[in-house]
Amino acid sequence: MSRILAAALLLATALPAGAQIKWGDQFDEITCGQWEPLDMTGRIEKLKAIEPFGSDLEQADRGAAEQWEAEVAAACKGHPDRLLRDAATQALGPT
């Protein structure tokens, strides 16, 4: 559990400001409603497209990746029209 929290904190503190997050073109269009039906692997693959977090997510253990996926899923729940980038930003919390 502490490894998961440490990895999540590493992901959350990787940047000093959320404005520095770079999103792939797919995040300008993909919504939570399109992301939610994907299986765990598909969801994590979409999250890996977020730079610079994608490279950190690839190096993190699977549990940390699944924890961030769960946080994004919670931010998406009940908001099928919300852009995935907005839900992922919310899941990261204040930076």
Give a summary of the structure in a few sentences.
With 95 residues, this protein is mainly alpha-helical.
Structure commentary:
The protein has 95 residues and is mostly helical. The chain has helices at residues 2-12, 32-35, 40-47, 53-59, 62-76, 84-92. Mean pLDDT is 74; it is low at 4-21.
Helix % is: 55-70%
Report the biggest beta sheet as strand number plus sense, adding barrel if it closes: none
The radius of gyration is: 12 Å
Classify the beta-strand content into a percent band: under 5%
Q: How would you spell out the order of helices and strands?
A: HHHHHH
Strand count: 0
Molecular shape: globular
Distance linking N and C termini: 22 Å
What does the average pLDDT come to?
74
How many domains? The number is 1
Low-confidence stretches: 4-21
Count of helical segments?
6
Q: Class by helix and strand content?
A: mainly alpha
Structure characteristics:
0% strand; mainly alpha; single chain; 57% helix; 95 residues; 6 helices
SSE blueprint and pairings:
Elements: H1 2-12, H2 32-35, H3 40-47, H4 53-59, H5 62-76, H6 84-92
